[in-house]
Design goal:
The protein has 186 residues and is an alpha+beta fold. It has four helices and five strands, in the order ααααβββββ. The radius of gyration is 26 Å and the shape is flat.
Length: 186
């Protein structure tokens, strides 16, 4: 008895159908498993979190209204965030502060400063913060123990240089900070 006999396909013609040589037709049971794994792994990524996912909220009403398709537009308020290479095309210094009012004690705050550096460069600095406050901390018995809060912050430093008329290259450096309550610390 062959050691692979429990794993042999009951339909060896299927292995020939997909182009496997006779030598590898005994692993045809693996193909449906791989297809299932790829489909479920791909859909499971939608439920996982990403570092800096709070940055997808949008920094201004105009960028949110455009469906966050704002990278090619020269935003006069948050150029350092949306289009780092666009900082060189600013004709004056830009300073912007905004606060989104969100439900469930959530907050979203952003500020940005951008300026052109003569003759062909630009610099931008931005800070975006999102968080939740007044979270009820509970014990295993259900009793309230403390009030918790959490926040996520991103600091952007942007530099751009114009390399030809109407063409520039920008570099964006991001620092992400997370403050989460751990073991009773707030």
């Amino acid at each position: 008895m062959n050691y692979l006999s429990p794993f042999r396909s009951k339909h060896p013609a299927w292995g020939r159908l997909i182009g496997l040589s006779r030598r590898y037709q005994h692993i045809t049971w693996l193909i449906p498993f791989l297809i299932f794994w790829l489909v479920t792994a791909g859909s499971a990524q939608d439920y996982a979190g990403y570092a800096g996912s709070f940055l997808r909220i949008g920094s201004s009403a105009r960028s949110v209204a455009m469906g966050s398709a704002f990278t090619a537009k020269l935003d006069r308020g948050f150029t350092a965030y949306h289009n780092p290479a666009g900082v060189v095309f600013l004709d004056r210094k830009q300073f912007t502060v905004l606060h989104h009012f969100l439900s469930l004690q959530r907050q979203y705050f952003a500020t940005s400063f951008s300026t052109g550096l003569p003759p062909t460069a630009g610099l931008g600095i931005a800070w975006i913060s999102a968080g939740v406050k007044d979270i009820d901390g509970r014990s295993y018995s259900g009793f309230q123990t403390e009030t918790l809060s959490t926040s996520e912050d991103a600091i952007f430093v942007t530099f751009a240089n114009q390399i030809a008329s109407g063409l520039s290259v920008g570099l964006n450096f991001k620092l992400l900070f997370h403050r989460l309550p751990v073991d009773g610390e707030n």
